[in-house]
Amino acid sequence: MTRPNLWSEQKEILFEDNHLLIINKPAGLLVQGDSTGDEPLSVKAAEYLRFKYKKPGAAFIGVAHRLDRPVSGVVALAKTSKALSRLNEMFRDNTVHKTYWALVGKRPEPSSGHLVHWLVKDPIRNVTKAYSAAHPQGQRSELDYEVLGQAGSRYLVQVNPITGRPHQIRVQLATGLGTPIVGDVKYGFLAPLPDVSIALHARRLELSHPVTKELMTFEAPLPTVAHWEAASIYY
């Protein structure tokens, strides 16, 4: 039995125990399957576990949260149904602290702040629109942001979402600050990146272990691609 080519030298595996598998997801990879039929992270992770532990059947992998396909960074997967149930509850109750890094083309003004919008998703076009006032179909969405500094010709912004809505960071930065994320042509950036990713990275995840209750922090290194290179000085 040859090892599946999942993650070279396991560099994308940030942590693993009996209940959790924490992955630094590469941009371009789905977290969970969709209509494209492309193999998602959840299937790759299950196959990795099946191989590692020589399981005769399928390995359990539960998905409690997602990152958009063109986004990289920390994803927490559950290896047991107990862990999945508790992770689902934590994400639903917003008790998981998430930190993202984003590259934008111009410096946001003001350089730090709190954004509130009502987001309405168009599932047909897979885009989300942000409204600055309450909208009858909108979900109230909040985030905090801070400019960490200049990264080459771009600006590095740290974002802490308080709610977890589809495309929330992408549309709130574009609409609320007029600073779409580098490469994110869906929300107003002028040109795609060569690898068709966007410069949004789930940098850090802080949560209580779903079984031991230990407070844990997981940090994902930035992708080793040209557009992120200048931001590495902020580690």
TrEMBL record:
MF terms (GO), sorted A to Z: catalytic activity, acting on RNA; pseudouridine synthase activity; RNA binding
Which domain of life does the UniProt lineage start with? Bacteria
Instruction: Please state what the protein is called.
Output: RluA family pseudouridine synthase
The record's family statement is: Belongs to the pseudouridine synthase RluA family.
What GO biological process term is on the record, naming one? RNA processing
Keywords for the protein's UniProt record, in alphabetical order: Isomerase
The cross-references to PANTHER family, in alphabetical order and at most eight, read:
MITOCHONDRIAL RNA PSEUDOURIDINE SYNTHASE, PSEUDOURIDYLATE SYNTHASE RPUSD4, MITOCHONDRIAL
**InterPro entries per the UniProt record, alphabetical:** PsdUridine_synth_cat_dom_sf, PsdUridine_synth_RsuA/RluA, RluA_PseudoU_synthase
| Entries under SUPFAM superfamilies matching the protein | Pseudouridine synthase
- The question of whether Metal-binding is a record keyword is answered with no
Q: Which residues form the Pseudouridine synthase RsuA/RluA-like domain?
A: 19-174
Keyword Isomerase listed? The answer is yes
